[in-house]
Design goal:
Elements: H1 14-18, E1 26-30, H2 34-41, E2 46-49, H3 53-56, H4 68-81, E3 86-90, H5 100-114, E4 118-120, H6 127-136, E5 141-146, H7 152-155, H8 165-181, E6 185-189, H9 193-202, E7 207-210, E8 218-221, H10 223-226, H11 243-259
Parallel strand pairs: 1-2, 1-8, 2-3, 3-4, 4-5, 5-6, 6-7, 7-8
Helix pairs in contact: 2-4, 4-5, 5-6, 6-8, 8-9
Length: 278
């Protein structure tokens, strides 16, 4: 009797995500390492290897200092830890703005070296043309409109978008141009609820909100934020755990045990074998 094997798990891809437009909401979270990716994989449709890794893992003040090498390293780790979720990797600042051919070479490298299913680009005035160029050459692209973290140095701060008529028109136009260029989905970050809702109702691609609207076709949060690893989080974050408190209590308990010589105990210690009697 031949051994029975489990069928391989099919990883989600861009067409699977596009089919969810107007359907069951997409569940998305960020991931930066293999163990976390393994924990999130059963629950998420998309794991985003966000350039937020620069701030939440590497301690950078913003995402501008994130490099291709950093994103590739974390992308590889997330791919190793996941099986089912679609893995999307952020293209870091400076890797796609300098021309369409440069963008293609960097995006192709990202996909080859990580094995990810797509890349994400923050949209801007010149980015839709780049997205179209990439999609025509076989690279699935997720767009990103509204608050764009990579533009923080030109805008001066992380500010919500779409609160004025001019901003509303600009963000909607960016989203429409990004969708028309061929992006399979669009992240809407830090955007007035009505604007995000209008974009979701207008474009034919799934929208993924982060500080946007509950009417988006999906939601994403930075995982360490929603797990409560930081004292401060943006307004749009809901904390589903208090891992900061749990870790603090665990480390304090460990420190107390070490100082009192309660750790290691006999059960956690290796001993030489007693010689066998002849």
């Amino acid at each position: 009797m031949s051994a029975q094997t489990q069928p391989p798990v099919k990883r989600l891809t861009a067409p699977d995500i596009m089919k969810r437009k107007g359907g069951e909401p997409l569940v998305c979270l960020t991931a930066y390492d293999a163990p976390t990716a393994a924990l999130l994989d059963d629950h998420c449709d998309v794991l985003l290897v966000g350039d937020s890794v620069g701030m939440v893992v590497h301690g950078l003040p913003n995402t501008v200092g994130v490099t291709m090498e950093m994103m590739i390293l974390h992308g590889q780790a997330v791919m190793r830890g996941s099986r089912r979720a679609m893995v999307v990797v952020d293209m870091p600042f400076g890797s796609y703005e300098g021309g369409m051919q440069v963008a293609y070479e960097n995006c192709a490298r990202m996909m080859k070296e990580t094995g990810a299913q797509a890349v994400k680009l923050e949209s801007g005035p010149t980015v839709p043309q780049t997205i179209e160029y990439l999609v025509q050459r076989g690279i699935p692209v997720m767009g990103h409109v509204g608050l764009r973290p990579q533009a923080v140095l030109t805008e001066g701060a992380f500010k919500a978008k779409g609160k004025t008529d001019d901003e509303r028109l600009r963000v909607i136009a960016e989203a429409e141009a990004t969708a028309d260029a061929g992006a399979f989905a669009i992240v809407i970050e830090g955007t007035a609820e009505g604007v995000a809702r209008e974009i979701t109702e207008t474009i034919d691609k799934p929208t993924i909100g982060i500080g946007a609207s509950a009417t988006c076709d999906g939601q994403i949060l930075v995982t360490p934020d929603m797990l409560g690893l930081f004292d401060w989080t943006p307004k749009f974050v809901r904390k589903y755990a208090d891992l900061r408190g749990e870790i603090d209590r665990a480390v304090a308990s460990y420190a107390a045990d070490v100082k009192a010589r309660r750790f290691p105990a006999e059960v956690e210690t290796y001993f030489s074998r007693k010689p066998v009697a002849s």
